[in-house]
Amino acid sequence: MGMPFPLGIRLLTGTADQEIPWAWGINGCLSVVSTVLATVIALELGFVRVMILAAFVYCMTFLGGWTGLLRPEAFRSIHPWQPPMPQCH
User: What is the DSSP letter of 84?
Assistant: First the structure.
């Protein structure tokens, strides 16, 4: 939540543009599935276990993203954001 997804999209921009729609699709799908799954787990195992599982998943995601960010080529194609130029017709 917050910055990881936008930063991931920014890393894909310019290097793997074809993967950006997949990233949006996976993000949307997992947002729906995780809500239902968290509710079921909370009802069956308790809220504390949901929080432990969520913390574990966030840590794994962070570590996966961090190792990707450590690659020097990850930032080669990133340029500062500039607003799009207005279209004159």
Answer: P
Neighbouring residues of 10: CB distance < 8 A, sequence distance ≥ 6: 78
Q: Which domain covers residue 34, as residue numbers?
A: 4-70
For residue 36, give both structure tokens. 């239902």
Say if residue 83's pLDDT is above 80: no
Q: What is the dihedral of CA 20, 21, 24, 25, to 10 degrees?
A: -140
Q: Tell me the Cα Rg of the chain.
A: 17
What confidence category does residue 80 fall into, taking pLDDT thresholds of 50, 70 and 90?
low
Number of domains observed in the structure of the chain: 1
List pLDDT tens digits, range 24-43: 999 899 889 999 999 999 99
| Structure tokens that stand for 81 in this block | 């954001």
